[in-house]
Amino acid sequence: MSVPAPGTSPLAGLGVTAPVLAAPMAGGPTTAALVTAAARADGLGFLAGGYKTAEQLHAQLAEVRSVTPVFGVNLFAPNPLAIEPAEYRRYAETLRPLAERYGVELPPEPVEDDDYWEQKLDLLRRDPVPVVSFTFAIPPAQVIASLRSLGSVVAATVTNAAEARAATDAGVDMLAVQGWAAGGHSATLTPRRLPEPVPTAVLVATIRDASRLPVIAAGGLATPAQVADVIHAGAAAVMVGTALLRTSESGASAVHQAAIADRSRGETVLTRSFTGRPARAISNQFTDQYDALAPSGYPALHHLTSPIRKAAAAAGDLEAVHLWAGTGYQQATPGAAADILRALSTAL
Length: 348
Ligand SMILES: Cc1cc2nc3c(=O)[nH]c(=O)nc-3n(C[C@H](O)[C@H](O)[C@H](O)COP(=O)(O)O)c2cc1C
Hints:
disordered N terminus, TIM Barrel, 13 helices, three-stranded antiparallel β-sheet, alpha/beta, binds flavin mononucleotide, eight-stranded parallel β-sheet
């Protein structure tokens, strides 16, 4: 497998020379400080636009821009997974004991939304950013073309060769290849099926055969040797999420950080139980009890379980919180993000 020559990645044009980048992590973990730390390490960090309003994203963009011009923005592209109201109510009923325990109300009917898609696209068109990446869906070709015409490098997150070909045909500049081992939501375009258990380095090699586009690869990368494997498989750069969750710049909640630091916790699982879309989390009582019961349904299940997860996190009870983590979470250490990113590149 050929390694892309230096300079073939559009990131080189932005002055990004480090091979290990900071992946977007919505819901709190990605802070402006984490993104600017990645730039300080000659890399790139992605602001996580997911769950934010356009105004919140705008404020975070201003914070980052006051420190560095080099950053990316990640958005959830709409790929709604509709759920029948009866199926929704059946799952909601199984959650009632937890809702009662935490004294919270759950939405009685499915709540659907598009995560302020048009508003955030408008923001990125009014105020273009160096790099835009998408997860959950490949946006329409005209959306990609409009961002590119404003000077943004556009990446789509893909989880297999077919998705890589679709993203290439839609006109993106780069592929963010996400392996099965990745923490948080899978980017899969077909979320009613769980992603295939393929090691990230193998997936990169397969996708390099399927597309000519440069690849940023992510998923379970926790050691310098794992990073080197993936770069040797043909990735132009890698991204890490979980490895940054315990850093000084991480905005991950106290319960999340405590779970990542706890060497006695078990495996991670790919589960729909929290949001109705496959996501990798450290197993806890919630995943043990609800994984087998949960239907597909995004974002309805995200909104359904959110009051329970928020109340549990506020109470310091990590057994009912979504503890997003990749398979390598036990290697995550505290420290400055820039140091951790640099340390991960030392086997190259
Ligand atoms: C807490 C958390 C939140 C995440 N949120 C996003 C997100 O908003 N957008 C996205 O494209 N990927 C998201 N991901 C996936 C990461 O971008 C990346 O693919 C993953 O962290 C790589 O695997 P690793 O966690 O094993 O390093 C998230 C991952 C985690 C752990």
